[in-house]
Amino acid sequence: MSLPPEKASELKQLIQQQLSKMDVHGRIREILAETIREELAPDQQHLSTEDLIKALRRRGIIDDVMKELNFVTDSVEQELSASPKQPASFDKQSTLKKSDGTRMADSTTMLSISDPIHMVLIKTDIFGETTLVASYFLEWRSVLGSENGVTSLTVELMGVGTESKVSVGILNIKFEMYPPLNQTLSQEVVNTQLALERQKTAEKERLFLVYAKQWWREYLQIRPSHNSRLVKIFAQDENGINRPVCSYVKPLRAGRLLDTPRQAARFVNVLGYERAPVIGGGGKQEQWCTLLAFLCRNKGDCEDHANLLCSLLLGYGLEAFVCVGTKAKGVPHAWVMTCGTDGTVTFWESLTGHRYIHKPTNPDEPPLAEPPKPLHPYRTVGCVFNHQMFLGNCQPSDAVENCVFDLNDESKWKPMSEEAIKSVCAPGATTSLPPFPPLCASTVDASVTSNEIEMQLRLLVSEHRKDLGLTTVWEDQLSYLLSPALASYEFERTTSISAGNEEFQDAIRRAVPDGHTFKGFPIHFVYRNARRAFATCLRSPFCEEIICCRGDQVRLAVRVRVFTYPESACAVWIMFACKYRSVL
């Protein structure tokens, strides 16, 4: 009974708009100040959350908010079918609509909502680096059988990856239903429902495992060499739980945060790349993150990027699949493939945002003395999958350049039963993974952040040159002229179209006098740490030559441009430049 991600995002935006109109945040700040000033004892160092909630209730803030956020008897279907010629307004008397068509869901209806609350614990250090500490799926429905709709729980949070059996701490949680339910259920009813769901889920997962084993035996009977192919049916999540790979992908709509599939690919590309940590040798540690854990820490392995990009492309109505195979030197890898209605097969590299059109070689043609080098970096492909389909590559060769991606041809691709996949991966089929959360808009102010990084880099350059016994003279106009180039670079990364370079080059020619030399060095980062970026720049001999420039009438320039994306991901472009008079 959960809301689809796009409706949840719309509901969230409407609530935010209404809270802004009511100036709820301003009223909370006023009450917080009054409470601290009037009620906090001199020996108390801080105000607890419970004290703040009590203060808000005494002053009627919570009641006022709930009065404004009414639920009316209109179904989602009626809302979706509304004519675009009759836009809905949202004024002071407007109401929010709930999917079940009632004023407030009763306890029996809420008991049928099997989606758990997914909690992710992230640690952020002083440099802004994030670490995934714990990921926990909380069963919240015990509150439906508690008196007055209030209950407390204590849960033990376990680590992730290789530390999934190690406790990281205890979390005390207090649940309160608001508005209160008219009628609570007995705890026995709640426990019985949960036990039945667990039994049903376990049976579905058992049957799918039996089917998957049979499918694998049949796949090996086609050709014994299939045993060495990367056919990934199950993958471990951050908690060490084996899940069908199809459950990691779901169609995801980005609302108004991303406009095109290529912009979505750029967003996924600027999320950081980090392989799962390995203790000791033995190759790569397997860890596929759930979407929420991946987005919370804003970095992950190639499989995490591919699953997110595939989900976004499915949301845009494309026929998208995650490909599992290898790239150069046989390194395991995952990327995304889309199949066009005209038969065009396009590979999307989720770590770089690059796209490649696949043109398979014709086995009937005579072999060339020197076959052309493929444009893409992929070597072999073992299987492809999305939220509904899983297909194993059963062609004589699993080399990507020789593969034909006609997924309807069962002589080339062995499919799994879509019904079997649906039984364990469809929404509501099991309690394994809750619905994907909607993407959040960026909280980063691009202009302010760009200026801050630029000022920090100027200081770092000046200090570095001072240590070398060099003076530093900055030219603001030259710095400003670098902006169009940075915008052009980001546009090209997103669209694969180059534009605007002619105007930039013309402006630079006018800004550099005769007899002077201009040098520029652009570089791209996905983090906002100025000192770390500066250290990386110095490792480039071209950039170091600019920063340490010696000569007559040396003028330095630096420009930073931060491009923001959902989930506070950023593409940071930096360009160092200098001009000086050439002396022979």
Low-confidence stretches: 71-102
Give the overall shape, derived from the CA principal axes. Answer: flat
Strand count, sense and barrel status of the largest sheet are:
7 strands, antiparallel
Percent of residues in helices: 25-40%
Percent in strands: 15-25%
CATH class of the largest domain: Alpha Beta
Number of domains: 4
CATH fold name of the largest domain, please? C8orf32 fold
Which whole number gives the mean pLDDT? 83
Explained architecture:
The chain contains 17 helices and 20 strands. With 584 residues, the chain is of the alpha+beta class. It folds into 4 domains: 17-39 and 47-65, no CATH class; 111-189, no CATH class; 197-362 and 373-425, C8orf32 fold, CATH 3.10.620; 446-581, Pathogenesis-related Protein p14a (3-Layer(aba) Sandwich). The strands form 7 sheets. It has a 7-stranded antiparallel sheet with strand order 14-13-12-11-15-16-17, covered by helices on one side. Strands 18-20-19 form a 3-stranded antiparallel sheet, with helices on both faces. It has a two-stranded parallel sheet with strand order 1-2. InterPro entries: CEP76 (IPR052299), CEP76-C2 (IPR028926), CEP76_C (IPR056288), CEP76_N (IPR056289), CEPT76/DRC7_peptidase-like_dom (IPR056290), Papain-like_cys_pep_sf (IPR038765).
In short:
This protein has 584 residues and is of the alpha+beta class. The protein has helices at 5-21, 24-38, 49-58, 61-68, 76-80, 107-111, 187-222, 261-270, 291-297, 302-315, 418-425, 446-467, 476-481, 483-495, 501-511, 530-538, 541-547, and strands spanning 71-72, 96-97, 117-124, 130-138, 150-158, 167-176, 234-236, 242-244, 272-273, 299-300, 320-327, 332-339, 345-348, 355-358, 378-385, 390-393, 413-415, 516-525, 552-564, 570-581. This is Centrosomal protein of 76 kDa.
